[in-house]
Amino acid sequence: MGRIKAKPEVCMGCHLCEVWCAVAHSKSKHIIKAFLYEEEKPLPRLVVEEKLPLTFALQCRHCAEPDCVTACISGALSKDPETGRVLHNPNQCVGCYSCVLTCPYGSIFINPRKREVIKCDLCAGLDTLYCVSHCPNGALVYEDC
Amino acid sequence: MGNMGDYDYLIIGNSAGAVGCIEGLRSMDKNGTVALVAEEEHHVYSRALIPYYLGGQITRNKMYYRPRDFYDRARVSVIKERRAVKIHSAVRMVELDNGSRLGYGKLLLATGGKPVYPPISGLDKQQNVFSFHSMKDVLGIERELPAVRSAVVLGGGVIGLMAAEVLHKRGLDVHVLELADRLLAPVVDETTSHLVEGALQKAGVTLYLNNTIDQVHGTQRVESVTLKDGRSIPCDLLIVGVGVAPRVELAQGTGIEVNRGIVVDKNMQTAVPGIYACGDCASTYNFVTGAGQNLPLWPNAYLGGRIAGFNMAGMERAFVQGTAMNAMHFFDINIINAGINVTGAETPDGLDVIQEYNKDTQTYRKFILSEKGHIKGFILVGQIARAGIFLNLMRRKTDVRAFIKDLFKTDFGYADLPETLRWKLLQDDVILGVV
Ligand SMILES: Cc1cc2nc3c(=O)[nH]c(=O)nc-3n(C[C@H](O)[C@H](O)[C@H](O)COP(=O)(O)OP(=O)(O)OC[C@H]3O[C@@H](n4cnc5c(N)ncnc54)[C@H](O)[C@@H]3O)c2cc1C
Ligand code: SF4
Ligand code: SF4
């Protein structure tokens, strides 16, 4: 099981990882269509942290012992023992925000449109990690650990 | 009834603590035999979802905390609708209410809590009085709801207010009675209480502070209540939400120490070897105060159970992540708090309080800091994004004095930490200097 790591020294702070993360979680997977035509604008599941000139992207660490899963009152969050991914099932989520309270990295994001949270799923079901493969400067890498 | 069998691991209770234990245990020991005794008839459900179910946000099916085949897959023998009544610790045996006996190698008490009914005569005998705690309450409240117009909620704590919001959303006239002079008194500070009071009043919930029930009227069903101040409220549903007491009955007479909750060490073991406890029935280590305390919250129950499971399976692990912590929402207000809660004008010795309230955005942030600049408690109202970062700083006893002003930034994050601290906390998650 791996995780995405950031290289702050080459990060330009362009926020393209956020844009492509949103695209990865859109219906069309198309950068223009997703934002122009889809009923719900897709949202990113990572954040570019900034204190200029420092910038780096931070997303879910898919922790070995995830605090978010521990805290979840509904069973919506789980760690897949096979892949190591920490996954969120929106059908089960009630938006209690216990996971927001406990994730040490601030990697659970509140969906402003409904009582629900969203998080990085390591692009489950897609063939590349969108934030990694679309970073123009190689500031995000996927590492096995 | 005779002996029903011997198990390597026996768990009493069927909720967050039990599931945490099973998942911890099974990640270490795939073969040991496990049995679980559950007094309720239902598959494991989350009582924290009661407000969401009664509010119509989720179906009954979604109250189940784990899939239907969870116990089968974990190879746990579930003994349902049976209550454990006695522990014979000398012979490592638990007796059930039908007289049958179960032998154990390691035993976990995850018996949770029981709603408290204040000594008001006539309160607990009526058909339309419920607590807000179990599936039984849910089914009872649901049965009553179609005919209810006016509901009284006794208790202005977290559970009482959740009940009030749900009942209000179901179109009832809701009256909340609170003995203290503000809502949520032990949980949050005055400022937060007043923000919540405002939200409830704006929505149309009637609040009665410094007040409680003096008399209950009606014989089989409550028809109205008279308050301490003489006012009277008609009511066809009464919810009692004044608190939950740890269920410690089983510990009595065993040599297990009880101090409100069942006392355990950091490994979740009681004073009696082989017997562990976790969750709402237990008194566990609070990493902020350093004291053993009842910390009746879901994350503490699950994680305490998980750590008990590891220890029961022979892997030593300590539970040092627990403290008071709440994620709450009442109408349009979101609140997250953790650690100690300083209220009133007096700040205890050696602690510093910093806070910022923005009237326009209705946001509020408060931090309680030790002399060494460690966060000992915090409250966030309105703006709760990435709150876990504060909990992490608290757990890691980080000196925050160098960036104290930044704590109030609405987008506070790891970028705001001093360089060395930032990379230390993110550890190997960020690669440095390899262009
Ligand atoms: C309405 C409501 C909302 C809540 N919301 C939140 C929230 O948002 N966040 C949060 O952190 N916490 C919340 N909580 C608290 C949380 O639900 C509890 O902390 C948690 O359920 C504790 O789990 P537990 O395993 O210790 O015990 P419990 O959930 O209390 O379960 C104990 C089980 O053991 C069984 N049992 C007890 N004694 C015996 C016996 N002798 N034999 C057999 N079985 C026995 C009981 O029947 C029960 O099923 C809420 C609670 C309520 C009531
Ligand atoms: S959301 Fe947070 S706690 Fe959960 S796995 Fe990711 S980094 Fe860990
Ligand atoms: S917000 Fe959803 S995912 Fe997060 S703890 Fe609550 S129910 Fe679980």
Automatic annotation (TrEMBL), chain A:
GO terms for molecular function: 4 iron, 4 sulfur cluster binding; metal ion binding. Gene3D superfamilies: 3.30.70.20. Keywords: 4Fe-4S, Electron transport, Iron, Iron-sulfur, Metal-binding, Repeat, Transport. It comes from the Bacteria. InterPro entries: 4Fe4S_Fe-S-bd, 4Fe4S_Fe_S_CS, ET_IronSulfur_Cluster-Binding. Residues 84-113 form the 4Fe-4S ferredoxin-type domain. PANTHER family: ANAEROBIC DIMETHYL SULFOXIDE REDUCTASE CHAIN B-RELATED, PROTEIN NRFC. This is Carbon-monoxide dehydrogenase iron sulfur subunit.
Automatic annotation (TrEMBL), chain B:
Residues 7-301 form the FAD/NAD(P)-binding domain. GO terms for molecular function: oxidoreductase activity. InterPro entries: FAD-bd_OxRdtase (IPR050260), FAD/NAD-bd_sf (IPR036188), FAD/NAD-binding_dom (IPR023753), FAD/NAD-linked_Rdtase_dimer_sf (IPR016156). Its cofactor is FAD. Keywords: FAD, Flavoprotein. Gene3D superfamilies: 3.30.390.30, FAD/NAD(P)-binding domain (3.50.50.60). This is Pyridine nucleotide-disulfide oxidoreductase. The lineage of its organism: Bacteria, Bacillati, Bacillota, Clostridia, Eubacteriales.
